[in-house]
Amino acid sequence: MNPIPELIPLLKQLRLSGILDSLEARNREAIDRKLAYTDFLSLLVHDEVARRDQKKLAQRLRRANFRSQKTLEGFDFDRLPTLNRALVHDPATGRFVGEQVAVLIVGPCGTGKSHLAQAIGHCAARQGHDLLFTTQTQLLASLRNAFGVGNYERKLQTLAHLPLLIIDDFGLKPLRPPEDEAFHDLVAERYERAATLDRIRHGAYRVVLDGDSFRNPKPIGEGQKNSVEKGGKSAHA
Asked: Which residue, among 49, 68, 60, has the nearest Cα to 94 in the 3D structure?
C-alpha cells in the first residue's frame, strides 16, 4: 500500500510539503540501498533544509535589488593582470560584515567597480546576510521621499539595521543640503565613531582598480597597478 497520498495533507499541515519533491526518489534510494529508517529520514530532512535555504537565498537576492547576476566567477580578472585575486576574494568571505567595517571600491570608470560590489554582495547573500544594492542617487531619493511622507525615521532605521548596504556610484555627485544631512544620519546610525567620512574609512578594506575600462577595450600597458589593502575608500557601508 502506498502511504504517500495519506502523507500529503499531513505534510502540508506541518508545512513540510516540500518533502514531497524528493520523497519518492528517496524512498526508491532507501529500498535499493537497504537504508535504515533513520538514514532515510535524515536524507529527507537534509533535502528539506536545502530547499528552505535555497528559497531564503532567492528571496534575499530579490530583495537585494541587484542590477544583474554579477559574481566573482564572472569577473574578468585577466583584464586586470596585476590585481591580487587572493586579496579581492578576502571581502568575499563576508568577514567584513561581522567586523562592521566598509569595503571601499575605487577606480576609473568601467574597470568593474559595480561588478565587484555586486559580486561581494552575492557572496554575502549566500552566507545568509540580508543586504540592499542601490546607487547614491536612489538612496538619497528614497530618504527624501520618506521624509516627504513622514516616514523618514522608519526608513532610516530600516537602512541602518541592514547587515550590508552597497552604495554604487558613491561620490559621483556632490552631496548638498538636505541630502548631506540625510546621508550623515544614515552613517551615524550604522557607525559610532568620528566624522562621517572617517566613520566610513575607519578600518575599511580598500579595493583599487587602476586599469583600462571594460566598456572600451584597449591594450593594457605596462606599469599599471591594482591593489587591495585594508585601511582606506566605496561599496559597502
From this structure: 60
Q: What are phi and psi of 157, to 5 degrees?
A: -70, -35
Q: Is the peptide bond before 178 cis (omega within 30 degrees of 0)?
A: yes
Which set of grid coordinates corresponds to residue 223? Answer: 606599469
Q: Read off the pLDDT of residues 118-154 as tens digits, 9 standing for 90 and up.
A: 999 999 999 999 999 999 999 999 999 999 999 999 9
Answer yes or no: are the C-beta atoms of 100 and 129 closer than 8 Å. no
pTM over 0.85: no
C-alpha cell at 206: 580598500
Using the structure block, give the residue that is written with the C-alpha cell 535504515: 36
Reported as a single tens digit per residue, the pLDDT across 5-57 is 888 899 999 999 899 999 999 999 999 999 999 999 999 999 999 999 999 99
